[in-house]
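Put briefly, the fold is written as integer tokens. One such record reads:
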Amino acid sequence: MKYIVLSMAAAFSILLNPAFAQKQAMSGSMARLHANIQCAQCHNNIQPMQAPQDTTCIQCHGKSSSIQLPANVNEKNYHNSPHYGDTVSCLECHREHQPQQNLCKNCHVIK
């Protein structure tokens, strides 16, 4: 029994170690686009990890109104909102560890 408890304690200490956490791959909807990015680049080594601030997203992607969709994407660019401009948090729509949301669908019918 003593060895089981010690083994479990050792396993949990490894899982809680930030260095180990850095090596875990993203599993959500942004995983493909951020595959070569370490967790700390967005989460700033804050423990426990918290959602990144919009300023972190803007450092790489720019303000939402300046984001261009790839040429092969044939849909409206929701980043350039006539209602909100640059005031909506990136995390309002883009989430890694929770289901994605579409703020526009709160009022508009989107096909």
Q: What stands out?
A: Residues 26-66+76-106 form one domain. Helices lie at 2-16, 18-22, 39-43, 54-61. The mean pLDDT is 75. The longest helix spans residues 2-16.
